[in-house]
Amino acid sequence: MLQMFVRISGARFRVLQQDAGGAWVIAYDEYQMPTYINRDELERAERIAAPEEYVRNRERPMSAAQRQRYDLLRLALEDDRCITDEAHRTEVFAAIAREHNTTVRRLRRLYHAYLARGSLTKSKPREIIRRTDFEAAIRKYYFSAKRNSLRTAYELFILENYTNKGVLADQIPSWSSFRLYYFRHFKGDPQKEIAREGLTAYQRNNRPLYGSAMQYRESVGCYQVDETQGDIYLVSKWDRSKVIGRPNVYLAIDTASGLIAGVYVGLDAGETALMACIANAAGDKATYCAAYGIDLSPADWPSRGLPSEIISDRGGEFVGERINELCICYGIDRQALPPFRAEEKPLVERAMDLIQDSYKSMLRGRGVIGDDVGERWATDYRQQAILTLDEYTAIVIHTIIALNKGRVLTDIGHLPVDAPNTPAALWKWLVDRGKSTLLDVDAGELYRRALPRASGKLTRKGIVWNGLRYLLERGAELTVGAKVEYAYDAQDTSHIYVVGKDKRLIPCSLAPSSSRYDGYDMADVAVMRREEAEKEKAARQTELEARVAMRSEIERIIRQAEEQSPGSRDISEIQRHRTNERRRLT
């Protein structure tokens, strides 16, 4: 077998066989099966001396292990057809592998090692040969915001370095060597993602995540909070033919136990919805579930109390005035994460997916949004909507109860072996052992702080909200004409609560002029006011009819008087005429 070596495009090759048309060569530095080059390419190739390693390998006598490997490969090494016929080579390797209980992959590597380097010993770690020209081209053309393909980067590299006025040079690096160099040295390099997609996309989708989500806190009371838009369209509960869009869902998840502690499902978004979620997390779940016709065992959703720490992203509602006020009033620590740090609140991120994945398959064709949303051929999921907001909320509650009660936790290796592996049971286990930082709060006070806010002007007659007038309690340190912020409860119009300078909520009662609406919710008030408006409209119609009739009679009397009136009047003795008139009337 020949012992000639050549250099082609910077890579070393050993010539195995020659014929009239060219030669079969094998790469010395890279793992690659024999390949054929034509006569012209062989003649252009640079002749080089045999590498010292190859010479030493050929001169050194074989050890017993090497002889054993040679005997294993003898059938292929002594068959020159294995060099030129890949299919035949594969058949020979397969036969040897079956006979000697080894693998074709091992045989291929030994075969290459012997043909290329003359050695059957375990190969040493391959010396890394840096191709600065390849690296520069990859970084310039492939690691680029233009998102060139690797093939395009190779062609631009050839255009820049191996052409003269559009004519290719005689010897150029092959596409396979360029591609192989990339996969050997650059595949998985984060700089590729950063350069091609941007740092934001890399941080969001490809950055390594470390640590345990639940080991992050050891006691219950640290809540991860997030929001999403439900993947479903809903209809009005008063008129199911009207689609009202997609609901907003806010979740609060306890970090130590994985329990879904609080939820808000509704059409509101922002600070009001966030505060409602936190209030729900702190409140009685049995009462909440009963409002949707669900009988809850407290052990299945045991969370109650205000968290001592809240972890969220930097969305507007999570860093706004309302959450600041809550944290100041109750001494809650707050951690606002930088963008794309999903690993800092993975439990709530995952819970959002678990909830929606739990019901999606059952609601296909009933308003649930599919993966093809936005495509031109996609179904109009709005036309499929059948659920009202209350019905969807009940589904979410049932899903939360199931996840809290039965979801098996796998990330609790840091806890003792006797620790339960479901969220509700683990919550109780931690609380029973004193591992709780929950804050006891007055439910009514927290409910009022979670109410939506509005602003208005304090006048001598009080504050007007939605047409209802409220009077401030005596002694409140507010002046007439001041602009005030107040909390209101659309479910009970009896009071509003003005936010004082010290963030204290000052109750305001309905004024006597609006007292008829005391105890009603805003929906009932709206109905009552519509009925009152209709009654007033009817009364105005009656009033108008009466006044028109009155004016008609007045005009008739005037016409009659004018017909009987003389041309002139005697005004000389009005007093005597008045006396005579009174005498005649009696």
Give a summary of the structure in a few sentences.
The chain is of the alpha+beta class and 586 residues long.
Looking at the overall shape, the CATH architecture of the largest domain is 2-Layer Sandwich
Provide the domain count: 4
Q: Please tell me the overall pLDDT.
A: 84
Helical region count? 20
Q: In the CATH hierarchy, what is the superfamily of the largest domain?
A: Ribonuclease H-like superfamily/Ribonuclease H
Structure explained in plain terms:
It is elongated and about 160 Å long. It folds into four domains: 4-117, no CATH class; 132-205, no CATH class; 219-432, Ribonuclease H-like superfamily/Ribonuclease H (Nucleotidyltransferase, domain 5, 2-Layer Sandwich), CATH 3.30.420; 451-520, no CATH class. Helix 3 packs across helix 5 (86-100) and helix 7 crosses helix 8 (150-161). The chain has 586 residues and is α+β, with helices and mostly antiparallel strands. The termini are far apart. It has 20 helices and 20 strands. Residues 211-215 have low confidence and may be disordered. It has helices spanning 39-44, 52-59, 64-77, 81-84, 86-100, 104-117, 132-142, 150-161, 175-185, 190-197, 199-205, 271-282, 285-290, 321-330, 346-360, 389-406, 423-432, 443-449, 522-564, 574-585, and strands at 4-8, 11-18, 22-27, 35-38, 46-48, 163-164, 167-168, 222-229, 234-235, 243-245, 248-254, 260-266, 309-312, 333-336, 453-457, 463-465, 468-472, 483-488, 495-499, 505-510. Strand 2 (11-18) and strand 3 form a beta hairpin. The strands form five sheets. The chain has a six-stranded antiparallel beta sheet, with no helix packed on it. It has a five-stranded antiparallel beta sheet with strand order 4-3-2-1-5. A five-stranded mixed beta sheet has the order 12-11-8-13-14.
